[in-house]
Design a protein that fits this description.
The complex is a heterodimer of chains A (111) and B (114).
Chain A (H helix, E strand, L loop, with lengths): L3 E3 L4 E4 L4 E7 L6 E7 L6 E6 L3 E4 L2 E6 L4 E6 L8 E8 L7 E3 L3 E6 L1
Parallel strand pairs in A: 2-11
Antiparallel strand pairs in A: 1-3, 3-8, 4-5, 4-9, 6-7, 7-8, 9-10, 9-11
Chain B lengths: L3 E4 L2 E4 L5 E7 L5 E8 L3 E10 L2 E4 L7 E2 L9 E3 L8 E8 L9 E2 L3 E5 L1
Parallel strand pairs in B: 2-11
Antiparallel strand pairs in B: 1-3, 3-8, 4-5, 4-9, 5-6, 7-8, 9-10, 9-11
Classes of the chains: A mainly beta (111), B mainly beta (114).
Amino acid sequence: RKEVEQDPGPFNVPEGATVAFNCTYSNSASQSFFWYRQDCRKEPKLLMSVYSSGNEDGRFTAQLNRASQYISLLIRDSKLSDSATYLCVVNMNTGFQKLVFGTGTRLLVSP
Amino acid sequence: EAQVTQNPRYLITVTGKKLTVTCSQNMNHEYMSWYRQDPGLGLRQIYYSMNVEVTDKGDVPEGYKVSRKEKRNFPLILESPSPNQTSLYFCASRQTAFPYNEQFFGPGTRLTVL
């Protein structure tokens, strides 16, 4: 089993739609989780951090389910500018606090 | 402005010709690392450094070297590049204290080895 797994997509949605991505992780000891956004082979940038059960920032909501070992990202009222690849990142809680990146889920928002 | 810089941004070279990709951060972060990104494989860690003179292998260290002589700099060295090292490379830095917040990435170096 991969340490962090994501559905690669692409998810094609119209503007205004609500879309959700899931990410599963293998290490039950993981304590911190992140969603990063990456545009067209540019550098990843932090979208949200998730330390407890969830986090909300405007149209974006991240939820954590420790029992099932997955995190989700919900985007409401999708905008064209939301088109990007979303990377799920898990802190493996090892001695050197290794971050493991999922391969990303691609989102395409169309007019 | 808080940032991670990398140079060069684009590089085309030939097999066996030694090269160095520089990385510098101005946020006084202890932790720095190098990743490569390949289609379908995501970001894979090459090397990381917890602090000056402390480096260790990541998941794909073969063919690479690093050094951390100063806190702000973390160069990536390819002693004898090969075509399978053609990739997009990112340098990153972050603080090490909990909560382990944002990891900042450099703009990337697109390397082609012929």
